[in-house]
Design brief:
Layout lengths: L5 H22 L15 E2 L1 H20 L8 H20 L11 E2 H25 L10 H25 L23 H17 L2 H28 L16
Antiparallel strand pairs: 1-2
Length: 252
């Protein structure tokens, strides 16, 4: 990757956004979900918000991918499948699992998320389908194999934790409860941990600056929210398990 190309500039921009995002969110949680607050303009239903925000990561990514010179080669297609596996779930399945009582999402948040997914989709799709070089031997490379395994593990943890959280409420219920079971016994936000593991697995599987930029941004976006959730649980529930950490068992 040359830093002087449009692609290189876009990757550098994503690293810069990660730094800004981490610092900002440590002091001001993104205003959706339990942190929803007035002053952010028009709002959307959470389903519409998630669809608007996440669908470019499926559709725009695919549009950029099919323009690449290596689009029909086996290894780029395998990477495409990994990416779409996550984002088809996140964009087109997860929103419809949300209960109708979920808090509304500010349009501004959805648009910011959509803008990020356009940038991120461009740099990663462009890399794996055109700028990167992955022959079929890449599918046997330890970096791909370990990265793909981490991606699959992270996706499982992420989706499993989502399922646990969604089951805490019944239709019409707007309360909050202590999640329990599996990794929730060790960390407050295994859903965020799973997603971070996924994208560091992606960075390894693609062995690229584009993949690393996304992994770093994912941590910068989700780690502060995990810390905020952890503090919120402890403040709200006096009996919240003391051994739980926010994001990493025993450590963080």
């Amino acid at each position: 990757m040359s830093p002087l190309t449009p692609h290189g500039v876009a990757v550098a921009l994503e690293f810069a956004l990660a730094a800004v995002t981490f610092v900002t969110l440590r002091f001001l949680p993104a205003p959706y979900g339990r942190y929803a607050r007035a002053g952010w303009g028009p709002t959307l239903s959470p389903r519409t918000g998630w669809l608007l925000m996440e669908s470019p990561a499926v559709l725009f990514f695919l549009a950029v991918y099919v323009l690449g010179r290596h689009r029909a080669e086996t290894a780029p297609l395998a990477l495409l499948c990994l990416w779409q596996l996550h984002y088809v779930y996140r964009a087109f399945f997860f929103p419809f699992l949300l209960l109708g009582t979920a808090k509304r999402m500010p349009l501004a948040v959805a648009l910011l998320g959509m803008a990020f997914n356009l940038l991120n989709g461009f740099i990663n799709a462009r890399w794996i389908s055109d700028l990167g070089h992955y022959d079929t031997t890449w599918l046997r490379d330890p970096r791909f194999l370990i990265g793909a395994a981490l991606f699959g593990l992270g996706l499982f943890v992420n989706a499993s934790a989502d399922k646990t959280l969604l089951r805490l409420r019944r239709p019409g219920d707007t309360g909050y409860y202590i999640p329990r079971g599996r990794l929730f016994e060790w960390v407050s936000c295994p859903n965020f941990l799973g997603e971070i593991v996924e994208w560091f697995g992606w960075a390894l599987a693609t062995w690229s600056w584009a993949g690393l930029a996304f992994a770093v941004y994912t941590f910068a976006n989700l780690a502060p929210r995990a810390f905020a959730h952890h503090a919120w649980y402890r403040e709200r529930f006096p009996d919240y398990p003391r051994r739980r950490r926010a994001l990493l068992p025993f450590l963080l």
